[in-house]
From TrEMBL, chain A:
GO terms for biological process: ceramide biosynthetic process; sphingosine biosynthetic process. It comes from Pelecanus crispus (Dalmatian pelican). It is a single-pass membrane protein. One of its GO terms (cellular component) is serine palmitoyltransferase complex. Keywords: Acyltransferase, Endoplasmic reticulum, Lipid metabolism, Membrane, Pyridoxal phosphate, Sphingolipid metabolism, Transferase, Transmembrane, Transmembrane helix. This is serine C-palmitoyltransferase. Its EC number is 2.3.1.50. Residues 124-484 form the Aminotransferase class I/classII large domain. It is found in: Endoplasmic reticulum membrane. Its cofactor is pyridoxal 5'-phosphate. InterPro entries: Aminotrans_II_pyridoxalP_BS, Aminotransferase_I/II_large, AON_synthase_class-II, PyrdxlP-dep_Trfase, PyrdxlP-dep_Trfase_major, PyrdxlP-dep_Trfase_small.
From TrEMBL, chain B:
It comes from Pelecanus crispus (Dalmatian pelican). Keywords: Endoplasmic reticulum, Lipid metabolism, Membrane, Sphingolipid metabolism, Transferase, Transmembrane, Transmembrane helix. The keyword Membrane applies. Belongs to the SPTSS family. SPTSSB subfamily. This is Serine palmitoyltransferase small subunit B.
Amino acid sequence: QKNGISNGTLNKKTFIEHFEQAPMYVAVLTFLGFGVGTIFGYLRDFMRAWGLEKRNIATEREQQKDFVPLYQDFENFYTRNLYMRIRDNWNRPICSVPGPQFDLMERVTDDYNWTFRFTGRTIKNVINMGSYNYLGFAETDVNALKTVTIELQKYGTGICSTRQEMGTLDKHVELEKLVANFLGVEDAMVFGMGFATNSMNIPALVGKGCLILSDELNHTSLILGARLSRATIRIFKHNNIQSLEKLLRDAIIYGQPRTHRAWRKIIILVEGIYSMEGSIVRLPEIVSLKKKYKAYLYLDEAHSIGAVGATGRGVVEYFGMSPDDVDVLMGTFTKSFGAAGGYIAGKKDLVDFLRTHSHSAVYATSMCPPVAEQIIRAMKCLMGLDGTTQGLQRVRQLGKNTRYFRRRLHEMGFIIYGNDDSPVVPLLLYMPGKIGAFARRMLEKNIGVVVVGFPATPITESRARFCVSAAHTREMLDTVLNALDELGDFLHLKYSRYSKSAHPELYEETRLELED
Amino acid sequence: MDIKSMKNYLYWLYCQFELITCSYLMEPWEKLLFYTFNITMLVMLLYAAYIFVPVHISTAFQFFLHLVGNQHENAVSVMK
């Protein structure tokens, strides 16, 4: 039934992940840059406090000065003084479909990014290296969207109800059956929003007296769901099996904190692909640990569903494992399917429980029909049920693009994090001054990138994150790579000591030792 | 031709300085303040070096010479 397990039993690929450290002078210079920025931040704050400069952020009225402060000034120090200076690189409005190329609205600022105004022109055909459009399903081709148009005309756009009241359409039932079929599990349930799927369903599954073991770099939706559930949360180092095993052993030996009773439930929260690092979870080892210590596993495949695996079925297929090994499979339709929403899949008992007990099912509006139809047509395309091999071609094209892009970036000498097979490619920039310079110059060359800085990443490791798509042609990738080459030389970003590739013994390798 | 590549190299170095110390992000008056401060510090350092370094080096040289000279004399006196 399934052919081509990309990392399974016989032809096991080595699990190669790179997290190269930059030379020491880079860290020193980064701190120097932040130091200068902080000093000037204090200077500007002083000037604002003493009225030498106009205050542009929210302040209280004169009459409220003696009350408890409403706006905590110091907490936004970083936002006010560093983020504002480079704010033009984020929240850029786009005015076309976010396919492999898109149009941007041009905007300028007169007062150093405190306010923007649109000039009225659009920047056309900017190469899109930031959208999570892994399989290229964000398209406006009329033939492709035929069924979506029909459903839109049949159902309209609003549901005006929650799942439990009158919001379950036949489209939802069809979609859920299709998702369950796609993943190879018994049943699935879909929700209208991906973030809400995590944050509203974890509280339904765990409660007080349970233990959550969550990875260091988990997404905010998982952390929010874990905190809302009021279970005890313990954090293990990123993708580090020894750390996880130690926590599991301690949990089982010592039990709950004061009473030393056994934990009601132990659940491990991991993600398929971590979006800031580009690393893939070590699923076989985690599953063997979970079986040994009798814990549950919650796998968030937001970025990996559709993007890894021989036929696009996510990390479970990538490692050649059976979906029965994972207790709760969660994913989103935002990334690879060009729609919006999330799903939770697993055994029928689990999904039936969630249908009655999840906050999302009871209170949140269900997914709207045209979006559900878009997911149905994308999934049918992926599974080959529409009679073409287009889906498989897209998955293969994504794999090819990913490997090509990563190989060329390694050869050029940039520091890239993550697994060789993940389509999320973070390129390390390190210094705060370079964040703004990089994004602006890439836009001048007509390439749109996403840069990430301090609060979302550790302070010394700011990065530019590229998302490779199946819709990118080889020419587009070459354009981007040439621009990166030039920019890397100009901004001096090529810190890697292992450039000119082809030295596998220099990378850290872990062989997967699975018995099968 | 060499002057042009030299000028380009110097411009590139200046850009690197701007990026590393975040002066790329500063408004013009902040840049003025920052550069004035840096150049003042640098000039003061060079002036202090110009005044004091030759004196220190010659003093150190004399000290070591004295040390070696003394040893020589002691050796001579013992041999006698």
